[in-house]
Amino acid sequence: MNNPSSPVKLQGGCACGDVRYECTAEPVVSLNCHCSVCQRYTGTAYSSVRIVPAAAFRFVRGELRYHTSTSNAGHAVSRGFCPNCGSQVLGRIAEKPEIALISAGTLDDASLYPPALDLFTSRAQPWVVLDDRLAKFDEGIPAGPPNT
Ligand SMILES: [Zn+2]
Ligand SMILES: [Zn+2]
């Protein structure tokens, strides 16, 4: 299934370039998470992630450091950042090792695979303009695409 010669669908890296990655699968889902934990970690209003099969993701260069905390949905989420420049690049959820959450801003072309969902809109900042075209969830999704 995971053919090593399959074409790269996504690639990106941190701000300083020490960490580079690629992914040979298209995202399972693209979403924006407005939860309070994502706001704190990203240092801004929300996190936009591209959720991909972990088996299709690999680092081309460098290593991340991870910090783990409990998400608003109750998951143990490890957020990986470049030890040199601090860019948050990748999220991993302990209970869902089969997926990886790419921080959209680290993609070389973040216009690809735009988000379809807004999660935790109940916690969204009042100054964020939400896109009506995206499906909205006050909290996480009870059963469905993994959320952070
Ligand atoms: Zn870096
Ligand atoms: Zn979140």
Short account of what is shown:
Residues 10-128 form the CENP-V/GFA domain. This is CENP-V/GFA domain-containing protein. With 148 residues, the protein is mostly beta strands.
Describe this structure in words.
The protein has one helix and eleven strands. The longest helix has 7 residues, at 36-42. It is globular and about 40 Å long. A hairpin with a 2-residue loop joins strand 8 (88-93) and strand 9 (96-103). It has 148 residues and is mainly beta. The relative contact order is 0.25. It has a single domain (18-124), classed as glutathione-dependent formaldehyde- activating enzyme (gfa) (Alpha-Beta Complex). Bound molecules: zinc ion (2 copies).
CATH architecture: Alpha-Beta Complex
Q: Strand count, sense and closure of the main sheet?
A: 8 strands, mixed
Structural class: mainly beta
| Name of the CATH homologous superfamily | glutathione-dependent formaldehyde- activating enzyme (gfa)
